[in-house]
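WARN retry 2 of 3 for item q-0093 after timeout on previous attempt; input resubmitted unchanged.
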Amino acid sequence: MKTKINEIFASIQGEGPVVGFKQLFIRFCGCNLNCDYCDTEFQTGTEYTPAELAQKITSEYNLKTFHSISLTGGEPLLSAEFLKEFLPLIKEKTKIYLETNATMPEKFELIKNYIDIIAADIKLKSSSGKNTFEQNACFFEKCQEINTFAKIVFNENIEDEEIMICSELGKRYNIELVLQPEMEKENRMRINSKFCSDVLEKFTGIYPNTRLIPQVHKFIDVR
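OK item q-0093 returned
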């Protein structure tokens, strides 16, 4: 079994509650969504078997120096069968951090026992062109015993109904919500700080376990 990996690199996590920690990123090719704001190139890459990928990262990196390995993309769960064979080869050496659009709960079931932290996206139609609320609910049902937070990318078009639905999802599944302002190519927020504060106020008025964290890695100019 092989899967295509776009890139492997060491950097600093710039999003969510573990912001600032050093991670080893494994970027998987392919995605089942096509979000309007996505600026990630994840189509080209190198094919690996599970053993080859495990050998590469353990021989080239000291995993003890990393907070965790980030499985990112694209959408890593498209390669769930591959991950089911790969993750047992490295699990004793590191924590596993899964970045996912949280729309493939059946695929997640194949690897959930190997995952330590889940960074799940809730897509808003106002920013991504997608609405994934129903899929997200099914996904969150399956990860309640795992450390999970939900990232919500938003811009000036966010609607009160979206805020209500996201807050209710957070409340129902007891997961932290992380609001992430959409960024422009110049590595600055698309919206101003006052608007961000107002959006945060609306969220916390419904669900207090919500915070605002911009993409810190873009401000400090790392990958």
